[in-house]
Specification:
There is one protein chain. The chain is built from four helices and 20 strands. With 264 residues, the protein is mostly beta strands. The chain folds into two domains: 121 residues, Roll (Nuclear Transport Factor 2, Chain: A), CATH 3.10.450; 124 residues, Jelly Rolls, CATH 2.60.120. Strands 7, 9, 10, 11, 14, 17 and 19 form a seven-stranded antiparallel sheet that branches. A six-stranded mixed sheet has the order 2-1-6-5-4-3. It has a three-stranded antiparallel sheet with strand order 16-15-18, with no helix packed on it. The longest helix has 18 residues. The radius of gyration is 23 Å and the shape is elongated.
Length: 264
Amino acid sequence: MNANAELLEINKRIPQAEKERDVSYLDAVLDDTLMFKRADGTIVGKSAYLSSVKNEVNTVESIDQEVSGIEFNEHNNAAIVNSIVKFTGTRSGKNVQGIFRNTRYFRNEMGWKMFVWHNDKLSAALHCVYLDDTNSEYARNDSNEMNGVVYQEKSLSSPASPDMRAIKVRFESGGHTRWHYHDGWQVLIGNEGVGFVEEKDGAIMELSGQKRVIIPPFVWHRHGARRGETMIHMAVTIGKTTWDVESKFEEQAAVAVHEGQKLQ
């Protein structure tokens, strides 16, 4: 069996071993130095992981995996295996389901052993979700991340994980976000009214009726309603958000931005 086929077989077997609580198999393919970063951000080693597999409060009702790629180093003795995993089960007494990205690092020293395992949650939903505007409800966002009057869509069906959000936001006259960036892409789609998107030390763009503004990762920006307008936009955001809530220029935005001036 060649290296690609061998690693493919190992990685197909790992989810089944979790479901069957086959600790002996998992023990055999995990390096003693294993570092496992869970989807919740916690990091555990081999012994803690195997203990969780044995723990009867942790169940696997269903687990489906697709290996999306295997990459080798030039000597074919180290590899990265990428997989997408659909999971439903119980963790620490709580029901858990979702779609996860698993990145697993292996090295071959007298047999393939996994030494790093990185698990990212992509979605809490396992199936397509239909939403229409009749289901939209808004709640005021009074956090320090907003300036002025801003309402945010509240929907149990809309994705709202740290990795992906797709929600509508309503800004009253002059209301806007504070400076922030995302570590993934964001697309803002205008629905009603007239608003703006401003890039820090960059351009100011109008956002209105079905216009779109695409914001790359790690670009400082803010967005909101033009003075005298109520603006609603759909924000589709990938990645976590970092806020600058200490900016000295926030109070100028409601006037300067809407007059087309560039803030200094």
